[in-house]
Write a structure and sequence with these properties.
The structure is a homodimer of 335-residue chains. Chain A has twelve helices and twelve strands. Chain A has 335 residues and is α/β, with parallel strands linked by helices. The interface between A and B is large, with 52 and 54 residues. Chain A binds a DNA duplex (30 and 30 nucleotides) through helix 2 and helix 4.
Chain lengths: 335, 335
DNA sequence: CGGGTGATTGCAACCGGTTGCAAGGGCCGC
DNA sequence: GCGGCCCTTGCAACCGGTTGCAATCACCCG
């Protein structure tokens, strides 16, 4: 059916090695042979079978891309950037949607069966052990949007979540909010735990501020909406730090549905600065996570590990910044 | 490095064929041999190399999934559902992000090199010829969210865009709007052209209604926002049919930013019924595209074609329905 | 013109599996 | 106890490539 190396070799009147070499960068082929082969190949419409090649070269250019959150629109940006970045380097993303099953073994086995060159885990909620399972299996892996630590067991690229929590706390404090809350992500997500810790630690310096945390079921609109409904029922606080922009938007909707205004009645500060935060109907004050940089670094890192697997794992922490928009009241004396 | 068939065979004291057969459904192996092999395999942590196997079986379980719009949050739902649906059937999605280059040859060659079993093109904007290139190359292909037609050259699963355009027109007419507009997608997208035609044809029955079409740069928030800005500048119409929910949301934001209320000053009806349309801050009246059904049917179809490639291509048209929310004024006499 | 050099080439083994075929083995009935 | 049948099993060829090695070739120099 498909045209093979042998077909080309026959047509060009050379050995299969010659053909193979024509398609292998840096192999020794004379100009004349190359011409004959290329002519035959293009007449036949030949292109080498990457999978067969991978058997001997031990390179598939396949990269497993694992994600577990398809409810958060930010992940479309994540996919867009990852797929583009990988493609630009000639790599192919093999997607694993982890929404259904989360045992590491399944994913490890599956990606092993496909001989992926490496794996990128793009999740801030998956446990560290999940990611480590790949390294244990000898598959190069990078944890993107993960939780950096000292002496990490796998490569991690992410942000200082505790620092970000503190940043949110400072921001709320500076605006004079006294009764504040943290609408956190799921309690099992390390990112949430760190943000909560940073938030609480910073607020400990501000004795007049009283804070409370409520965990959401997930990083999703529905979870944010439900959490804010519960808050409203219990009597809402003055302002909330939300563990993710999408939670903010859920909360924002719940507030508006309840006839409360933002930032008039309640202030909100989100996290991520996804594209929707900029939308006029949302206009969310938030803490920006440098997504593009994280993704670019993750891809660069996996490429580097694939090329030289014996590198010790590193943690890379990228800086976040406050993006002020319209969901918090202005700084006192600011107009 | 990795453990192979041969390692297992040696350890189990059997031939490689025996091992291969234990891992092949329906092959003839005695209970005793199978036990020995399974024991050895699990001790060694063996799992067969799918790529090597594919060389002889001619099946990779790889399905190319091509998309060209990562600006529209609806596509996260599309990815979620496609990846899950494929995984459920033991298939692996190989993503191609077409945002950068759109020559069919590149994608065809690339997917051919990876011996994908089939390809799903998930786009309502890519030209038909793009999809047909796969069939020409002998790769099973399904055009999902495409434009069904009589005697299609490739399998297509989609909706009746003209009918949907008409539905939008009827809806606006019934609510007594007189000066209406269509904020269309890109002029090159067949989906847009069909919707525009249906919209215009239906309005032709309503002589008192005056309509106009404005094409957007793409199915994105930014495009919708910009288009509505231009409309406002030119003096906005009473209501708009938007070629996509995301365009509606862009338009909605532009209207609110300009101090206009929806549906008080301007009415909006969208298209797709993506999840965000349900959000409180959006609450968009829209025409629902049966995404889940389209995706499920697309996957079922590609599986069927892969199993039996000689089927003539079919077009499948699924029904849409009006979802009434809060961005159009009520029907006259409706309260 | 012979020997030496480096570039080019083909052979054959190999990558990790599958599978047609024929031989071997167990079990049955007679 | 024997022949026959069917289930198991291993051999070896093959899937579509790559690559070490040795042979060949062209060319240069003395």
């Amino acid at each position: 059916m498909a045209v093979t190396l042998k077909d080309v070799a026959e047509r060009a009147g050379v050995s299969t090695s010659a053909v193979s070499r024509t398609f292998t960068e840096g192999a020794s082929v004379s100009h004349k042979t190359r011409e004959k082969v290329e002519k035959a190949a293009s007449e036949l419409g030949y292109s080498p079978n990457v999978l067969a090649r991978s058997l001997t070269t031990r390179r598939t250019s396949l990269i497993g891309l694992i994600a577990d959150n398809f409810q958060n629109p930010m992940f479309l940006e994540v996919f867009d950037q990852f797929t583009r970045s990988l493609q630009r380097r000639g790599l192919r993303p093999l997607i694993v949607n982890l929404s259904e099953a989360t045992e590491p073994e399944t994913s490890v086995t599956m990606l092993q069966q496909y001989s992926v060159d490496g794996v990128i885990v793009a999740s801030s909620t998956l446990p560290r052990t999940f990611v480590e399972a790949f390294r244990t299996a000898g598959i190069p892996v990078v944890h993107s949007v993960g939780r950096p630590s000292r002496a990490p067991k796998v490569d991690v690229i992410g942000i200082d979540n505790a620092r970000c929590g503190a940043m949110a706390a400072e921001t709320l404090a500076a605006r004079g909010y006294r009764r504040v809350g943290f609408l956190a992500g799921p309690q099992t997500a390390t990112s949430t735990v760190d943000r909560a810790r940073g938030f609480a630690n910073e607020l400990a310096h501000h004795h007049q501020i009283e804070a409370e945390t409520r965990f959401c079921d997930g990083y999703s609109y529905a979870a944010g909406y439900a959490a804010m409904r519960a808050e409203i029922k219990a009597g809402p606080r003055e302002a909330y730090f939300c563990g993710d922009d999408i939670i903010s938007i859920g909360a924002l909707s719940a507030l508006r549905d309840a006839g409360l205004s933002v930032p008039g009645d309640v202030g909100l500060i989100g996290f991520n600065d996804m594209e929707m935060a900029r939308w006029g109907v949302v206009d969310l004050t938030t803490i920006r996570q440098p997504l593009t940089e994280i993704i670019e670094a993750s891809v660069a890192r996996i490429v580097s590990i694939v090329a030289d697997p014996d590198q010790p794992p590193e943690a890379m922490t990228l800086p976040c910044e406050l993006i002020e928009r319209g969901t918090l009241r202005p700084l006192p004396g600011d107009g």
